[in-house]
Structure formats: C-alpha cells, structure tokens
Amino acid sequence: MTGGGAPRRYFDGERPPPEPFAEHVLALWTFDVDIPDAETALHTTWPDGCVSLSIVANHGVPAAASIIGPRLRALRVPMRSGLVVRGLRLWPDTAASVLGVDPVAIRDLARPAAELLGFGALSLARAVARADNDPELDAVWEAWLAPRIAAAALPDPDVRFVVRRIIDSDGTCRLASIAREAGVSARSLDRRFAAAVGLSPSQFARVRRVRASIGAIAAGERAVSTLARQVGLEPASFAREFRSVAGLSPQSLMNELDQLEHSGRTGLSAS
After folding, report:
1. How far apart are CA 63 and CA 19, in angstroms?
2. How far is CA 52 from CA 28, 86, 143, 163, 174, in A?
3. Less crowded by CB within 10 Å, the N or C end of the chain?
4. What phi and psi, each to the nearest 5 degrees, are found at residue 21?
5. What is the pTM of this model?
6. Would residue 162 be called left, alpha or beta, if left means φ above 0 and alpha means ψ between -120 and 50 degrees?
7. Looking at residue 11, what is its pLDDT?
C-alpha cells in the first residue's frame, strides 16, 4: 500500500459516485486542461484496469465522447487549452453489465461512444458538456446510469472478491492465495476474471501496482527504492514494470511533475 496507509483510490479531480451506484461505478471525474491559451499538450490516461466513459467539452459543447477499454500501457492524446474532460470509471468487472460492452474486445482501445452505445451517447455527451457544476453533472450521470444499473446483473462474487483484494493491496497480494480464499481453482479464476475485466489477474495486478506508484509520486515520493519496496519489487524490476505500463521511467514522471509544480500547475489528472 502506498505511504503505509490506505490505497489511494482517487486521483485529483476524481470523486466517489453516488452511493446507489457504488457497486458498479468506481469514480466520477472532471479535469480542466490547464495550459496557456492557444497551446496544446499531451494528456495522459493512466492505466487502471477499468473501462471508462470520457467526454471532452469545449465551452459547453461536446467535442468527443469515447469508451476507453482496460489498458496495459498509458494512452497519451493531444489536448488544447480551454477543454474540460468529464467521465466515469466503472468497476473493472462491470463494463459488460452496465454498458453492454465486452471488455476483452476493447482492451487497449479507445472507441467512439456512439459506436458502442448508440446515438443515446450523443445526448448524454451534450448534457454532460452543458452541466455548469458538480451537482448538475451528478444529476446527468444519475439519470443516465439509473436504468442501466437497475437492469445490470450483479458482479460475479468471486471475481469481485479478487478485484477488491488486488485494488486494496495495490496489486501486491499473492494471486494463488486469493484464489484459494475465493474457493476456486487458479485456472477457473483466470478464465472468469479475464472475461469480466478484460485483463488477466496478473496483468490487472501489474497495472494497479504502477498506478499506486504513480499516486505515490504525485503525493511527493521521490525515492525509487521506497516506491519499489511499497509494491514488493526490487528497484530494477520495479523500474522495468513502471516503464512498461506508464510509458516513461519513474524519474521522468517525477521530473515532469516537479516542472508542473514550479510552473504553478499541480496535481495528477484522474483519467
């Protein structure tokens, strides 16, 4: 666990979902593109093992609406000043039941929301883009989510048990031990987990370890040896794993965040 305490489930800009949706939705987020006027910059979507719905708004008008599948590597997309990104992150095992989307089919992909959800996604994008504040935005999300979640099947309890254990341990738990605790064989768990999440348990654990380390770096940790110890790896193994998922070295991310802080822009975006 990062920092010796509870895992950091939420990044800057994220907030918990309304309680009725908490078993299916992991977080809501809003991210303002904070760069000088007329400039563009690369925005990073950090892997988290989840399926997300992301809507980009430009002065109250939707510019893009995408479904982002479970990823093994960071996604970087160009953003220009003045944009606002709003979205929701589903629990890793609920994409099929809430969105009707096979997470395996969209692994490592970002697809237009209308292509996967139909034209109703365009109405949702317009309503999300027009919302002036968090209460209005929450009302939009609630109206769209309520019928979907009411009709959604409950998550596979064994898969959800493993998902929670991996998230709560920041990916450091022993997968064989978890399978025994869940009362299922490792082979059965791998099959059911991959079908529900779109990643294998070991892939999901790797993503969560790196995400925990990204959160620790954002919170100020600068010792690679400490970061490695927190996720149970040797420094060399940690550095390789971090680069494979984040797309850059731990030191490079530290340098980027330090430069942002020196320029007066702080925080690590949710998506």
Report:
1. 29
2. 10, 10, 18, 16, 27
3. N
4. -105, 5
5. 0.91
6. alpha
7. 65
